[in-house]
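Person: I have long wanted to understand how a fold can be written as tokens. Underneath my words sits a plain record pairing an amino acid chain with its backbone structure tokens. Those tokens are not coordinates but codes from a learned vocabulary of shapes. I should like you to check that the lines agree and flag anything odd. The protein I mean follows directly.
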Amino acid sequence: MSSILFYLAAFLLYGLIGWHFWRTKWNASKQSMDSSTVAASWDSFVILIPLILHGYTLYLSIFSSTGLSFGVANAVSSIVWLTALIYWLSSFFYRLEALQTLVAPIAAIAVLLPLVFPSLRPLANTELPAFKAHILVAMMAYSLLTIAALHALLMAFVERRLHHPAMSPTLLNLPPLLTMEKLLFRIIWAGFILLTLTLISGVVFSEEVFGQPLKFTHKTLFGFISWGVFAALLTGRQLYGWRGRIAIRWTLIGFVILLLAYIGSKFVLEVILQR
């Protein structure tokens, strides 16, 4: 019962913070821009409270048994938590207040997923260091590429609103599109490197990590297709200067394929097939 209170507390705090960000930043008027800027000095730290609670609930859920319980709900919740954590750290270097309005409600939903869809059984071979390293690198890669997808969506929204005479003060507070674009590709580069390490560790050390030789499944196929999409995007950026809508589209396509590679397979097996 006490553990459920941690889930509910994190959910409510995420919701309240999301509402606060929407009211003071996303939906603020031009006259309140100064006060919103001052509020950032304290509300940037307040989100750390639900982040800590969220991390604790993940610990309770993932390490609830002798093995490592890492079903679809724990996977999604972990990715969202790492995404929110990485974004929180990045927010001290970049003015990206609008993303806080998007991340908080998503995290509020994600924190409850392990309660609604608990893991059916612990994973095998979770005591192996290679497996733990593989999971850690994979989660970091998914989180960074999730941030890239959210960032790409924000860039698309800002680009559409540029031609409107009245823009939200939150959007006016954002860096120029060129600066946001540079940040986008820095995030993609970091996520791509970690995704590469994830795929390599899965192929080279498959028997040690998973306890069996590598099997060519749709998860493996989608993983390599996603890697190819991001590789093509980064190559196009270097050779042909891809930017703007092309970069946004390729980022979102790569992210959706990556989502299907891992979350899609686990969702079908655990939620639909109950396996």
